[in-house]
Specification:
heterodimer, A: mainly alpha, two-stranded antiparallel ribbon, 18 helices, globular, disordered N terminus, B: alpha+beta, five-stranded mixed sheet, 10 strands, elongated
């Protein structure tokens, strides 16, 4: 496999046809944008599914005349959504949003686009592998969405796919071919993720330009690096579990199915398996996955707060260490998803300690972001608004984690809407805000055009309010005990008084969904009509802003950039400008004291 | 290029600060408004009271953090908008960082200690005088079995399950099962500990009684033990809290807590 340097020696001479340039491209920037754009399309799919969920929960049993024609098979002839279709929608919403939108956009999209640019490399270490990584993603999507169209429909077992429900075809309509397609699709996507993360790790370790010590990496790159390590270590476990479940379903093995089950009036022939094994394997990936989704936004937000606050990120070293601590601890907290699963209660105590421990580095990061804003010079660009919004959502969602991390409290909240509220704040919405902050921030670099700030602000206000209006009331649904994944709460006396609240949530969700059309309009409008972006419109320090907008193939022209300082020299006292790019030689500004790279006292600048 | 540091930016900053304040006010107000309407059912079990205390303690701790952090955020957003000032060059402060590492650590340690005490009590062995009930989940309903006068449960065999006359799959060869009482409704005597032996016939289910603050998954192939003490006579709803298929949402059970005498009388009426 060729290493990036080898074949881009002469970037100017790079002439390839349209197909090799934009479709089967090996250029990390194109691959990043492919990942990003595909993810945004999938976000629209996942969003529509969310709207279907809220239609049903807001007005259970309502007859939807028009929508029925859009989803034949999902509704009765009278236009009422069917329970198995509802569960299929819930399953696919979660699966798509977590694996096919947030992971692919944040890691596949931003990781690909930013890693080589921020470390001063010409491309990834393995460009061909990188192309392969992206091109496994569309087939995974096709296989996944095909599940909607097969007999029995898409899986009914949730994104967690707990067996035996997911293992036995007779257990639910969606547990037939649909579940198999789901598993195969996930298997393909995991291979794509593994190719990607191998590439990221190698690239960061091997291809940093001269002067780019690890201690001078921008936090966004640190976040991508640590995320890649998490992915490389956790996804193989899910891949193994997926293959084992496929074997249970089709090859007569029995990893997850015990003996003596009677499903659909028939004695099941499997014997010797244990359903809890799947839960352990699934959450061994599942919890690191949560941080796979939130670490890249943390990196993006750290970058955006510093650049648009014109101030060094506060506590760079603590930021890196806390990301490392979060990454490490994320491997030993999976059991908090299983407090009520029937596993040994002593194990529950151990997982409570690790789970609450992970709140410490998370708190440190939050306080560091606040400290970064203190005495800053904040420019409220769209990127900055979303970054600050991220901090708010992360705090709100993170705090409810303290309920769920305590097993006795979780006994009540487990599998209720309280959990839904929690992870939609801390993981879904916060990650989405990180994604938007990153898009508004790097759009000029990606496409060479500025995004429209006015449309962007409208998008922010509506989204910020919409998210609180949608997900905050879910805490009360959870407090009142409404279980998640219920087709209708109407069967229970204690849930019936919640109906008005469910209507509120649904209306807010529709508003939130519609608000995203402003974003779509903005992207299209800005791509076509946006003003041409300068090289460094935000006056930022990191390397990507020293390249053209958009950067050419090979990124840098004949000479690779050389790095002399850390990325956060903003508002250095007595410096002429309020930013000093990483490429500025250390001797240039007459700085008093503090400007030195904390990790690297100015010794090599001479 | 668009105006990124002028009046438009400052106006956006002020609006954002107000919105964050609105989040705080709205958040706190909605919690106060939700009390009594959209809230936990009154606790009707002995350890439910312990769990509630833990929930309220956590609510106060997290509520304070929610309010404080957001107010600080709003204040910074308001105060440090770009008005042409130079930002501080302030990359580090070991003492400050250590402080806000150790303070959350102390708070979390307290929560861990409180939490593990309650968790330990929840999962202590059931008291010897507890009433033992076999509970089995199935798609999509609950089945309850009392051991009968001999106090011993008979053997069950999945192959013997017949929906009509032997839903539990009692093995007729085992004499201990002859007096077992199988019901579709769970009756419990008030004030006496109940030891539930939880099983599943097909897929995962979860035994969730909101008013008792009890939730425990029923795992196929395993028997999971859980115990609690219902304290208040009344009728309660039992819900399934683990996705079990298309009928998950209708897997409702009825629990009647009554005086010990009424309970005994009811049990005696349940012929097999």
């Amino acid at each position: 496999m060729s290493v990036a340097h080898a074949h881009v020696r002469e970037p100017e001479a790079h002439r390839v046809g349209f197909v090799r340039r934009y479709i089967f491209s090996q250029d990390h920037k194109i691959i990043g944008l492919q990942y990003l754009m595909t993810s945004l399309v999938m976000a629209a799919v996942g969003g529509v599914l969310a709207m279907l969920i809220r239609m049903q929960l807001g007005w259970p049993g309502h007859q939807w005349g028009l929508v029925r024609w859009l989803f034949p098979g999902g509704f009765t002839d009278a236009g009422v959504m069917k329970p198995d279709f509802y569960l299929a929608v819930v399953t696919m919403h979660g699966t798509i949003m977590i694996f096919f939108v947030l992971t692919t956009a944040l890691s596949g999209g931003f990781g690909n686009f930013l890693i080589p640019l921020t470390i001063g490399a010409r491309d990834m270490a393995f460009p061909f592998l990188n192309m392969l990584s992206y091109w496994l993603y569309p087939p995974a999507i096709v296989v996944l969405l095909a599940a909607f169209f097969v007999t029995g429909g898409a899986p009914n077992s949730g994104w967690t796919a707990y067996p035996p429900l997911s293992a036995l075809a007779q257990a639910a309509p969606g547990s037939g071919l649909g579940q198999t397609l789901w598993l195969v699709s996930l298997g393909i996507l995991i291979v794509a993720f593994l190719f990607g993360s191998l590439n990221y790790i190698t690239t960061v370790l091997q291809l940093r330009t001269r002067g780019m010590a690890m201690t001078r990496l921008p936090l966004v790159t640190w976040a991508q690096f640590i995320t890649a390590v998490l992915m490389l270590l956790s996804f193989p476990v899910l891949l193994a579990a997926v293959i084992m479940l496929l074997f249970d379903r089709h090859a007569g093995t029995s990893f997850f199915v015990p003996s003596g089950l009677v499903v659909g009036g028939q004695l099941v022939t499997h014997q010797g398996g244990n359903p809890l094994l799947w839960q352990h394997l699934f959450w061994f990936l599942g919890h690191p996955e949560v941080y796979v989704l939130i670490l890249p936004p943390m990196g993006i937000v750290s970058e955006v707060l510093a650049v648009h606050g014109r101030k060094p990120i506060f506590g760079y070293r603590a930021m890196v260490l806390s990301m490392g601590a979060i990454a490490f601890l994320s491997f030993v907290v999976w059991g908090h998803h299983m407090f009520t699963s029937g596993m040994n209660p002593l194990v529950g105590t151990a997982f409570m300690v690790t789970t609450l421990a992970i709140a410490i580095p998370s708190a440190v990061k939050t306080f560091n972001w606040l400290a970064t804003l203190w005495r800053a010079r904040i420019r409220f660009t769209c990127a900055m608004l979303f970054a600050i919004g991220f901090v708010s959502l992360f705090v709100t969602g993170g705090l409810t984690g303290l309920f769920l991390g305590s097993p006795a409290v979780d006994t009540y909240f487990q599998d209720t809407f309280f959990v839904v509220a929690h992870f939609h704040f801390v993981m879904a919405s916060a990650a989405l805000f990180g994604l938007f902050a990153g898009l508004y921030h790097w759009f000029p670099k990606m496409f060479g055009r500025m995004m429209d700030e006015r449309l962007g602000k409208i998008h922010f206000w509506l989204t910020f309010v919409g998210i609180y209006a949608t997900f905050f009331p879910m805490h009360f649904l959870g407090l009142a005990g409404e279980p998640r994944r219920y087709y209708s709460p109407q069967m229970y006396e204690f849930l019936r008084p919640l109906q008005p609240l469910n209507v509120v949530v649904s209306l807010a969700a529709f508003g939130l969904g519609l608000a995203q059309l402003v974003f779509v309009a903005n992207v299209i409008y800005s791509l076509v009509r946006g003003p041409r972006a300068a090289r460094n419109p935000w006056r930022a320090n990191t390397l990507e802003w020293q390249a053209d907008s958009p950067p050419p193939h090979g990124n840098w022209g004949p000479q690779l950039p050389v790095v002399y300082r850390w990325p956060y020299d903003y508002s250095v006292p007595d410096a002429a400008e309020d930013y000093i790019p990483q490429t500025a030689p250390a001797a240039v500004p007459a700085v008093a004291g503090g400007a030195a790279d904390p990790g690297h006292p100015r010794t090599e600048g001479s | 290029m668009a105006d990124i540091s002028g009046e438009t930016s400052r106006r956006a900053g002020r609006l954002l600060a107000w919105l964050i304040v609105l989040v705080v006010v709205g958040g706190v107000a909605s919690f106060l408004a939700a009390r009594g309407r959209w809230w936990m059912l009154p606790a009707a079990s002995a350890h439910g009271v312990d769990i509630d205390r833990l929930i309220y303690t956590t609510l106060i701790v997290t509520g304070l953090a929610f309010v404080l952090v957001h107010l600080v955020l709003a204040a910074f957003v308001w105060r440090y908008a770009d008005r042409g000032q130079r930002a501080a060059y302030w990359p580090d402060n070991r003492t400050l960082e250590l402080t806000y590492t150790l303070v959350p650590a102390a708070v979390l340690t307290t929560l861990i200690l409180m939490g593990s005490a309650v968790w330990g009590r929840l999962h202590s062995p059931a008291p010897p005088d507890a009433l033992t009930v076999d509970v089995r989940g199935e798609q999509f309903g609950w089945l309850f079995r009392y051991p009968g006068p001999d106090g011993v449960f008979g053997r069950t065999d999945p192959a013997q399950i017949r929906t009509r006359d032997n839903p539990m799959g009692l093995d007729p060869a085992d004499p201990a099962g002859a007096d077992d009482v199988v019901t579709r409704e769970l009756h419990l005597p008030a004030g006496r500990p109940v030891h539930i032996r939880l099983r599943s016939k097909d897929v995962l289910h979860s035994f969730f009684v909101p008013a008792f603050r009890v939730k425990q998954d029923a795992v196929p192939g395993m028997t999971v033990d859980v115990w609690f003490t219902p304290t208040r006579p009344g009728t309660y709803e039992l819900a399934c809290a683990e996705l079990c298929g298309v009928g998950h949402y209708i897997m409702r059970g009825r629990i009647v807590v009554e005086s010990p005498d009424a309970f005994q009388a009811w049990l005696a009426r349940q012929g097999r």
